[in-house]
Amino acid sequence: MLENWEDITFANVAGWIASGAMIFGGVVPYIPQYRQIKNKEDPEGFSLYVCLALLIANTLRILFWFGKRFELPLLLQSILMIITMLLMIRLCINIRAKNQIIKSRERVFTDLDIKFFWKWTDFQSYLNFILIFGMICGALMYFFVDVLIFVEIVGLLAVLTEAMLGVPQFIRNCGNKSTEGMSVVMVLMWTCGDTFKTCYFIHRDAPIQFGICGALQVLIDVSILLQVYLYRTNSNISRNVTRTD
What DSSP state is assigned to residue 103? Predict the structure, then answer.
């Protein structure tokens, strides 16, 4: 009886730890990136499209919860991630405005200019976009919550969007031919977190698309780490030029 009780207690503790890791583990990788941007006052190495992908993915995941209940830790993780991404955007926009020597024309959400989508110059525009996106998707979920295929599509879009979150950073690194300004610690934490998350999905017998998307995230993370190795010389040159200047 004692052994059974100990087994149950261990399982409960392990479950609580895993749930806690799911809730907070997703935002931890962005702490070193946030600190690096704040300390260097240079946000150019970090792609804000990463924030866009995560804001859309987690908004859809929250709405998916209303159509098909899933584990509470995943819901709490989505709420925390949205808050974190908004903080990242606000930091980057504030620093860009501060560092701008020659004040350029302001670009805001209400301009409705597709060329400057997600390149706005004020934080309120980003906030307005995600609020409008959430309200439109929320209204659709309200009307079609009983349509199973619609609910499943929302869930699939959520995990697919999240799986592609590393792609904007990968493309930005390719364009710069450097990973300067990007936190390598952040990407390492992405890799560890996505590996843990994929194993968590498999252990919990989550739908197969969750596991596939998790594996895709790990593959993208590893590709970005490979860029760190391939562009290491370019990054060193960039740092040396900065010191010389």
Answer: P
